[in-house]
Amino acid sequence: MKRKFKKNSIRLLINAGANKQHIFKALIAHPMEDGTRRSKASSGFIAADYIENFMVLLDGVIIIEAALGVNVSRNPFISFTFKDQVFDGQHMQVIWIENNQHYITYGCVIELNGEGAFRFNGHSEEQEIVEVINDAPPVCKLNRFKETH
Amino acid sequence: MKQQINKRRRFIKTSLAIPLFTHLNNNSVRAHEVSGSSFLVPGVIYDELVALYGNDANFIGSTNRLFLKVPPIAENGAVVSVNVSGDESLVSSVTIFVERNKIPLAAHYTLHEGSGLPVALRVKVSRTSDVYMIARTANGLVGIKEQVKVTIGCGGV
Predict the structure, then answer these.
(1) How many CB atoms lie within 10 A of CB A83?
(2) Percent of chain B beyond pLDDT 90?
(3) Which residues of B touch A72 (CB under 8 A)?
(4) Do the chains contact at B51 and A144, CB–CB below 8 Å?
(5) Which of A18, A25, A131, B95 is deepest in the core (most CB within 10 A)?
């Protein structure tokens, strides 16, 4: 059976690693096409479609920004470590911007379970994409991948 | 008659050797030598670093407190996990390059207050090449490189 993992959906896990620090792990469903592959169906190229900027906000404050590009694998896995431990009730936002300026935001409230972990699946029905804004301003300054494609 | 055959053989041998030699020579890494930098980077990466860090790109040190973990042999170059860890304090940004990709810059993390190392990512590596990690710390830029061998079939180029 083919698992349904819609484009721009997210699977998120926060759990405690070594030194009891909380680690953020996200798996995003995304083709990350670089625009140089030829399509088998038609004679042209497959259109470029990749994530340019990725960021995480905790209680409205940006804690990490990442400028990604065409060199990142399909279905990108992004992980980092929180400096301070996260606790229940904190509001977390995960945002990314595609090269076609689509702006995808997921919001969730952290609730650690009995094992001290928090899971969030952005593709389930209750937690749909909060907002998709077209022509959003680029937040990160690093948009130089566009010039080469 | 014999001499003619020998001549022909010699000609064929040398004509085969010249393109092979030039091919090997082209693959060698051209490091960008900068005074004051103890960590050398190739010219393509240096240009990107200047765009990202400005003048600081001329002084890149080496470190033994940060670690870059990549698989030494990758069977599938489309998914190569890169892990940057270490106990260096005040790492404010981490940049990852794959030298022999079309665009060497793979990712640029800006770590604000509240996030830190280790960071992990999966990148594409088109063929056997060095993966560079440049981090901005309290003592300036530091760099590490590791080689990833991409083996398609057997052997590896």
Answers:
(1) 15
(2) 23
(3) 106-107, 121-124
(4) yes
(5) B95
Name the E strands within B52-128.
60-62, 66-69, 73-74, 80-86, 93-98, 105-111, 115-123
Tokens of B154: 């057997």
Q: Between A64, A73, A83, which is nearest B110 by CB?
A: A64
Exposure pattern of B54-93 as b/e (b: 16+ CB <10 Å)?
eeebbebeebeebbbebeeebeebeebebbbebebeebeb
In the numeric block, which tokens belong to residue B149? 């061998």
Per-residue pLDDT tens over the stretch A22-62: 999 999 988 888 888 888 888 888 888 888 888 888 888 88
The ipTM (two decimal places) reads 0.78
Instruction: State how far the Cα of B3 lies from the Cα of B9, in Å rounded to an integer.
Output: 10
Dihedral sign (CA B109, B111, B112, B114): positive
Q: Are strands B73-74 and B140-150 parallel, antiparallel or unpaired?
A: parallel
Q: Is the dihedral of CA B3, B9, B12, B16 positive or negative?
A: negative
